[in-house]
Design goal:
about 350 residues, alpha/beta, Rossmann fold, eight-stranded mixed β-sheet, binds adenosine-5'-diphosphate, binds magnesium ion
């Protein structure tokens, strides 16, 4: 997709001029990071972390949760796929529909469509009917056969949590790009398909949430590599154009730390005679290429999207754990404090 950045935050894509909303309210620049962080999270109550699979959405969601909780904010993390990675990053067992504590000040829960529907029906005095519907498979027919119905049930629950102020900060670990777009598009589709009744009301209220930048914003995540950057730019325009959702800063995750490497000739002289000279020189070549690649991709992203970037580094460990989330949270806090 050809997208070009123009002056004053406007962007042309496929011949249409789009206005990308500013990512955060201008922060009052005080000395403490905590104040900047509070401002950052106060820009919207719900933050939806989205992006291509494997770029670090779940990791960034966990790190953002720590950043917010350390600034004294209560945090609720919502997983919409029922996967074990998110609680695993806090060293906790898989989440259920009921809230669980993930870390001090951080609660988490898995919002499944079935549980959300069951709860909706129970709240409307239909608990017994709900049970029968699940047992007889009626729910499968109704909820799974209508496009967008599963998504609207999940989004409806998120909307309710946002409305009732379930936490100062609600972080949603969204599905991967392709599904994230259809997930966030579901209320518009249903508004067209269902003209009245509770599903229509739910779709309308969810759309109100998604299009109100004070209540909700999307934080897109990517790695500083060609394909994830392309996909992020596509997703950003799709979300802006089709849904009118506010985009916050981009989470650019997994940059290799900058190394002060000698030039190629000096490097060869330095390692001459060592048995591992070949491997060391190869490693140096790899790191130089990687540094150039990630700088190029970060610049390309900045040129394609007028959004600020929050950068986090690649962690050289076999599997990320709570200590890594902690370190990434520190990097994010510093990056948030640098936002303008
Ligand atoms: N900054 C990082 N450094 C090293 N590994 C990372 C980093 N961020 C994510 N990962 C790893 O990359 C993989 C994908 O991350 P994850 O957060 O699960 O992505 P997503 O939720 O977008 O699919 C996981 O194995 C995770 O541990
Ligand atoms: Mg994930």
């Amino acid at each position: 997709m050809a997208a070009t950045a123009a002056a004053n935050g406007k962007v042309r894509v496929r011949g249409v001029e789009l206005m990308l909303l500013p990512s955060v309210a201008p922060a009052s620049r005080l000395d403490q990071d905590a104040v900047d962080i509070t401002d950052f999270f106060a820009a919207s109550r719900a933050h939806i972390v989205a992006g291509k699979g494997g770029v670090g959405k779940t990791t960034m969601t966990a790190a953002l949760a720590l950043v917010a909780s350390r600034a004294g904010l209560s945090v609720l993390v919502l997983d919409v796929e029922g996967r074990p990675e998110l609680p695993g990053l806090f060293g906790r067992p898989p989440l259920g529909f009921a809230e669980a504590t993930l870390a001090p000040g951080v609660r988490g829960r898995w919002i499944s469509a079935d549980d959300a529907l069951m709860e909706y029906l129970a709240d409307h005095g239909l608990r017994r009917l709900a049970r029968t519907m699940f047992e007889t498979g009626v729910v499968d027919v109704l909820a799974r056969a209508t496009p967008g119905m599963q998504d609207i049930l999940v989004l409806g629950k998120i909307k309710q949590l946002e409305r009732t102020g379930a936490a100062d900060v609600i972080l949603v670990d969204a599905p991967a790009s392709g599904h994230a777009i259809s997930f966030l598009r579901s209320p518009r589709g249903l508004l067209d398909a269902v003209r009245r009744g509770p599903v229509h009301t739910q779709a309308r209220e969810v759309l109100e949430l998604l299009t109100d930048g004070h209540r909700c914003q999307v934080l897109l995540a990517a790695l500083p590599e060609e394909t994830p950057v392309n996909e992020l730019v596509e997703t950003a325009f799709s979300l802006e154009e089709d849904i009118g959702i506010k985009l916050g800063p981009v989470l650019l995750n997994g940059s290799y730390p900058q190394l002060d490497l000698p030039g190629e000739d000096d490097a060869a002289a330095l390692v001459a005679g060592r048995p591992d000279a070949g491997a060391l020189l190869e490693a140096a070549v790899f790191r130089r290429r990687r540094a150039a690649l990630q700088a190029r991709q970060a610049d390309r992203l900045a040129a394609a999207l007028p959004l600020q970037q929050l950068r986090t580094s690649f962690r050289f460990v076999p599997a990320l754990g709570p200590d890594d989330v902690d370190a990434l949270a520190g990097e994010l806090a510093d990056a948030i404090a640098e936002l303008t």
